[in-house]
Amino acid sequence: MLILACPGQGSQSKGFLQEWLDHYPTLRGRLDELSNFAGMDLVALGTQAEEEELRNTAVAQRLIVASGIAIAREVFAAQKIDGVVGHSVGEITAAAIAGVLTDEDAMRLVAVRADAMAEAASLTPSSMAAVLGGDQALVLATLENLGLEPANLNGAGQIVAAGSKKKILQLVASPPEKARVIELKVAGAFHTSFMESAVDKVRSFASQLSARQPVMKTWTNATGENISSGQQFLDLIVNQISQPVRWDLCMESLNQPGNQLVELPPAGALAGLLKRGADKVLSVALKSPGDLSKVNP
């Protein structure tokens, strides 16, 4: 099966769209249309914005979702896609590709999500940190003892902790046995109880959208399962704002012989996790148009 993987926040980098725009002249028009729905000039952001601006939650989420949608439409228009999976905000990209949401509704939804999460993050000093290695049970126990929450269980020996800024700094200073802890450059404790106010705002907006049945297999971060109901998938996207991303469970479901996972731009993070945590699948990161030669027809 050919499965598209849609990355989440933190995957963006300065100028990542430029080579794609140079290679596909009509891509600019697609992005301009999505920019109108998002209320931001996404072409300028994806080609000219500095790293500091790209780390802004309101910018990053809009840009990542729009890039994934536009490039998927441009590159895979004539190719049968069997399934799609997203990581965190990438699930909105997945919803558009799977036909659960229109491209316009996906961009309107991510705009509300991004702004609501940025506002929630501003209420209390909070942060996130990647815990690399160590025994998973010990890592989770350490987080619980500190009053931190596991925001992402990414598999391949990686858990992302989130919570108050003070507690994250304590974790960095005293990591679990045989683990390294790296504080992430993010605006807040995403996928935790710190985001409850954002959930309410996004749920209110999402209730106005019409969700359709997915036209391909669509896996959820909540349980790693394939979801056949469009409304259920939309509900899970909303709830997931304050719930952990279970990418480890997604990889377990996807790790089947014959599966080919192609990570849409801005690519690299998910393909790296797949190579370490899903040894039965072929993973390809589309970092540039030249990487399309690695995709099996």
UniProtKB/TrEMBL annotation:
Residue ranges occupied by any Malonyl-CoA:ACP transacylase (MAT) domain in the UniProt entry: 5-289
Gene Ontology process terms (BP): fatty acid biosynthetic process
Record-level Gene Ontology MF annotations: [acyl-carrier-protein] S-malonyltransferase activity
UniProt enzyme class: transferase
Catalytic activity: holo-[ACP] + malonyl-CoA = malonyl-[ACP] + CoA
InterPro entries for the chain: Ac_transferase_dom_sf, Acyl_transferase_dom, Acyl_Trfase/lysoPLipase, Mal-CoA-ACP_Trans/PKS_FabD, Malonyl_transacylase_ACP-bd
One cellular component term from this protein's GO annotations in UniProt: cytosol
Gene3D superfamilies: Malonyl-CoA ACP transacylase, ACP-binding, Malonyl-Coenzyme A Acyl Carrier Protein, domain 2
Enzyme Commission designation: 2.3.1.39
Keyword terms of this UniProt record: Acyltransferase, Transferase
Entry keyword annotation includes Transferase: yes
The protein, known as: [acyl-carrier-protein] S-malonyltransferase
Organism of derivation: freshwater metagenome
